[in-house]
Automatic annotation (TrEMBL):
Involved in the biosynthesis of a nickel-pincer cofactor ((SCS)Ni(II) pincer complex). Binds Ni(2+), and functions in nickel delivery to pyridinium-3,5-bisthiocarboxylic acid mononucleotide (P2TMN), to form the mature cofactor. Is thus probably required for the activation of nickel-pincer cofactor-dependent enzymes. It catalyses: Ni(II)-pyridinium-3,5-bisthiocarboxylate mononucleotide = pyridinium-3,5-bisthiocarboxylate mononucleotide + Ni(2+). The gene is larC. HAMAP family: LarC. NCBIfam families: nickel pincer cofactor biosynthesis protein LarC. Its EC number is 4.99.1.12. Keywords: Lyase, Nickel. InterPro entries: Ni_insertion (IPR002822). This is Pyridinium-3,5-bisthiocarboxylic acid mononucleotide nickel insertion protein. GO terms for biological process: protein maturation. Coiled coil: none annotated.
Amino acid sequence: MKTLVLDAFSGISGDMFLGALFDLGLSKTALEEQLAKLKVTGYQLLVDRTSHSSIYGTNFDVILADHQVKDNGITEHGHHHGRSFATIKQLIEASELSDSIKQRAVKLFQEIAVAEAHVHHQKVSEVHFHEVGAIDSIVDLVGAAIALDLMKIDRIVVNNLADGTGTIKIAHGIVPVPVPAVMQLRVGTKIPIHLRSEVTTELITPTGMALVKCLASEFDTTPSGILERTGYGFGNREIGSLNALRASIYNTLLSNQSVEQEQDQVMLIETNLDDVTGEQLADGIAGLIERGAKDAWSEPIMMKKGRPAYKLCLLADPAQRKILVKYLFAKTPAIGVRYQLLKREIMQRKVKLIKTSYGKLHVKQLTYGEVTKLSLEHQELAKLATLNQRPLVDLRTEILAELQQIKQKKGI
Ligand SMILES: O=C([S-])c1cc(C(=O)S)c[n+]([C@@H]2O[C@H](COP(=O)(O)O)[C@@H](O)[C@H]2O)c1
Ligand code: NI
């Protein structure tokens, strides 16, 4: 499970987002190959690793060709006057990008279109993107959807989201900061934004706000797991302090990597719910696991007054108790929880990335005295089963057999 944490202390724009992902190792060639599926030409990606305030990070920009830009037979001369939301949606949907990338990219444009339609009193399908519709915005938004897919990001958390204050001049004239499209994108959300009074310019662009609104599942929290990498995507405006989006990747699969002791302590947290819906229960369990619970499940119970109900249970590192209890109170009807510290006997565990003839996957080697066994990650196995077009059960048996051979020949 990979969580991308965006530390947006100087806001966010499309360029800052991609710059930060390049700084984390996103491949320019892989992004270009995917973007080529849009059949839009006349631009180049500028990815420049450089320093600001002695901090190294990446400047990202989309450089447009001066005279002619062609996409799907449409030719523009000199200036890039934009397109309607309907045209951009068509362009994305007609491409050979994967369905999940298309859906994410269209959703991002749609959010901006809905906000712009409201601000300018237009129909959504007729929203004519000006700056937003230029090629660089298509590259920023579709590029963001592609990049998250390439980097296999499962979850995004946004921390310290900040905007400036004052006014700026845009194509519409002089507008207040946060700019009208950003304010409209915030409507109906509780996304926390801190306004920096000492910065009298725009820090969050409509593209940046759409990325936050559509992609972030949580705000102002630090995920459990190992911090694998951190990087910076620079902003263009001079703001008197570091103008960068910091992006970090936390890996919760790797956090389980090595367990050397055979006993430890684990916290069991439980709550009885007689008014929870099936959807809330399933989402709650998934959310607890995403936030670092070692396991989470529900048990059918009978409560007072003959009420059929559920007990929602989870096991977690005791240090995670506050975060997980807060989540239970926020996302389920729970108004009280019980917890107890339990002793556990556990198998010692080593996780290694192993190359098999079906592809690479993480293998857990488990030992307890003389007892040993291997365990595979179900999600990785499911992906390999799809890739190799093999039934999952058969693939598990075949991979385990191959791993035994590798173990006998050279050890794992
Ligand atoms: O082009 C339009 S309609 C536009 C609207 C607004 C409103 O807030 S309304 C703001 N802007 C400004 O354009 C630049 C580029 O924004 P991107 O999201 O395309 O990076 C930025 O300064 C916006 O505030 C444009
Ligand atoms: Ni506008």
